[in-house]
Amino acid sequence: MLAVQGLSRRFGGLHAVADVSFTVPVGQTLGIIGPNGAGKSTLINLVTGHLRPSAGRVEVAGQDLTGARPWTVAKAGVARTFQIVKPFRGMTVRENVAIGLLYGRQGMRRMTAALTAADEVLDRVGLAGKAAATPGELTITDARRLEFAKALALRPRLLLLDEVMAGLRHTEIDPSLELIHRLKAEGMTIIAVEHVMKAILSISDRVLVLHQGRVLTDGAPRDVLSDPRVIEAYLGHRYARREQ
Amino acid sequence: MTSERGEAAAVPGLTRRADAGRDEVPDGGAARHGGKAPPSAASTRSPVTQRAWLPWAVGGLVLAACFGLQSQLYAGQERTVATVFMFVGLAQAWNLIGGYTGYACFGQVVFFGLGGYTTAALMAHAHVSFWLALPASGLLAAIWAALIGLPLLPLKGHYFAVATLGVAEGTREVVTNLPSLTGGGAGISIPTVGADATTGYLGNDGFYVLFLLLAAVSVLVVAIVSASKLGFALRAINQDEDAAASLGVHTTRTKVSVFALSGFLTGLLGAAYGFQQVTIFPARLFDVNFTVLMVIMVIIGGSGTVVGPVIGAAFLQFVSEYLRQHFTEAHPFILGAIVIVAVILLPQGVVSYAGSAWRNRDFSLLDNIRKYRL
Amino acid sequence: MSQFFQATIYGLLQGGLLALIAAGFSLVWGVMNVVNLAHGAFVLVGAYLAWELSRVGVDPFLGMLVAALALFAAGYAIQRLLVNLVVNAPVFITLLLTFGLELLLVNGLILLFSADYRSIRTSYASRSLVLAGDVRVPVGRLLAFAVAIGITLALVALVRRTRTGLAIMATGMDRGAARLMGIRARHVYALTFGIGAAIAGAAGAMVGTVDTFSPADAGRFTLFSFVVAVLGGLGNMYGALLGGLVLGLVEAWGSQYLPGTLVNAVAFAVLVAVLIVRPSGLIGRAHYAARVEV
């Protein structure tokens, strides 16, 4: 579904992302982890078109999307959630979702139809009762669900999740995990950037580790998480030596 | 998971309800038709507003009333009201780019001036009929809007405002320095009598109707855009441009198109104004005070609404006229004070304030201050 | 050739003054993200204050201090009582508020002083130094230039080396964080606005000594401040200096070689070009992002 080759992005002298390559087959879930500053969010922004790569290639389902603008990427079926949720504050929850239906892959033409269809999407994420509320009235968990709903409204083939579990309590994580598992069962291809290891272990088929903009390693979740290099990257030299 | 148009395999039953083909005015958001259809009231599943024809009927009545009003007015009053119509049109045009999309263009007068000068140049030099010059002026203004929109619309907030102001001032200077085409600083006159006059001067009555029609067109355009998919996209861009883009909205194309539309309407009004004035000067046709008046009218009336700019334009023009007649010397001074007070107490404008006050039964003006103060 | 030198000298002298006029505007915009459309009016208030004082025998360079103090107090009050009320509102609300203020101030000046052009004459200002090649350097302009440079440098020192200056910069970069550090943001904002107004007043006094002025000039001063602030980068005082000099030179050379008032179009073209290509200014680093990220 997604093929990334030699992707790089420089900011002046800083290589935020350097020569990153990986592929994600259809229906698989790739977890991306790495310490802060590793370039995870930059990587997502490069794939979704919010940033232009300095070098490299991005291909989605065979379509070259390198350097494409965000709306082109969205219409190609790539949806993302934002780490800090970005709802449209002056619109209702229903209207927030309708935008994706009107302008995304489905490209619905009529507002009435889109608003009706939005209710179905809200059902899927468990926000059906709040369709007429405004984002300002939502709890943090519901706000995160809205981000999901907006992304799903695009009818995506590839879903990029940017730290959707950040700051949630363990009880709040489980419903989100349940939703992700449901999407997986429907065959969605997912890339999830996460810090919460419980979530990574639960949903990922494979895990990729970024460190200082480069791929450190990638493989099965348990293998990667017990790789001493990964531990060293997160916790530093002394802890890595201790683990050994 | 397949996703064909109109079908969502994971959600059965959707195709039955999709796109019933009815032509209702949809529940398109908080700021539409003067806040008469508040979104939070649409808690039922079907978002069709019951009396969707009501705003249009009211609009039609108002239009008819304005036509009828004409016979009741003296010449001087006719001119005043015609000016009100002109500002209604100008305010609505600015409302499209500044109100709905959130891009405060502080150089809007450049389209007004270009419209006026295109008409003047065509009629004076090429002896074109006014009725041809009018659409040509709108078109030229729209083209200019698209041209400057491409490099300037990526700029945000203050930067966009200042850049457009710079373009307006610069355009005025260029127009002033092309005397063979525009008459330069000495102005240019549209021939209205004699062999050179291609169109008879419309006179007070004629200009009253012309400005009324142009204002009606502006209001209509804004009403249609507001209720449409485009209006939805504009509001999304206004509230969070990044999110809108990642949801598939082609923000560049949308912004430039709306800017061009706004420029077109403004250009038409400039053309009409030029013809009315007969002799025009760059300092007047590109006067930044026009822009400021447009902005104030929209803000005071309610930006991003259909009715707001109409109310704002009418209110401000009448207040200005009244002050001019009764306090000639101090009138701009008092106007300044009014602007300050209005902006502090009602930053969202009269219409939006009325809408949310009615909805929440909360009429406190001080809430605004609490919301925006440091 | 000496015409070119004359124009260059004139451009530099005028540029220093423009830098002073714009410095306060740039500071307020850079720190508070407030575009003060009444800035030109502040300059004029300073000019008229100095003019009134000169009529009772006070030298304008002394009157400048009085104007600065008076405008500091006024600016502090205006910010604390009025502008603070809309700091968190959308962009054009503050623009409209300051525009209303401009209407008040300019028309107040017209009511008090009429729209006639005035100037402040001193015995020494009209003399000129003569350099090689018949190039004249008016003493008045030279003094104003020196004062302008001095005040701008003092402003840089204030901002970088004093506790107050540090507080101002911190609040400009991150108001929330600054408040958490114990900085009183409302007071800092009012100080900043007051300083901006004070500099504008001082600039006005200087303008009065070298040029004629009238309330109608307010808009022009504000517009020039825009250009200089953008050129130099918002909140950057060295940048304001550079921007002022650049604008002064462009205007001086432009009027030599371009017909009529086309030189103004050049100034605006420079403004727009800088905004498109490098919105953070020639040497500036903007606190507030100029571009939409998409």
Describe the protein in words.
The complex is a heterotrimer of chains A (244), B (374) and C (294). Chain A is α/β, with parallel strands linked by helices and 244 residues long. Chain A folds into 2 domains: 2-77 and 158-243, Rossmann fold; 87-156, no CATH class. Chain A has helices at residues 40-48, 70-75, 93-103, 111-125, 140-152, 170-185, 197-203, 221-226, 228-235, 237-243; strands spanning 2-11, 14-24, 29-33, 55-60, 63-64, 78-80, 158-162, 189-193, 206-211, 214-219. In chain A, the strands form 2 sheets. In chain A, strands 6-7-8-3-9-10 form a 6-stranded mixed sheet, sandwiched between helices. Chain A has a 4-stranded antiparallel sheet with strand order 2-1-4-5, covered by helices on one side. In chain A, strand 9 and strand 10 form a beta hairpin. In chain A, helix 3 (93-103) crosses helix 4 (111-125), helix 3 runs parallel beside helix 5 and helix 9 packs antiparallel against helix 10 (237-243). Chain B has a domain at 69-288. Chain B is built from 17 helices and 2 strands. The longest helix of chain B has 27 residues, at 251-277. The relative contact order of chain B is 0.16. Mean pLDDT of chain B is 82; it is low at 1-48. A two-stranded antiparallel ribbon of chain C has the order 1-2. In chain C, helix 2 (39-55) runs antiparallel to helix 3. The N and C termini of chain C lie far apart (49 Å). The interface between A and B is large, with 58 and 50 residues.
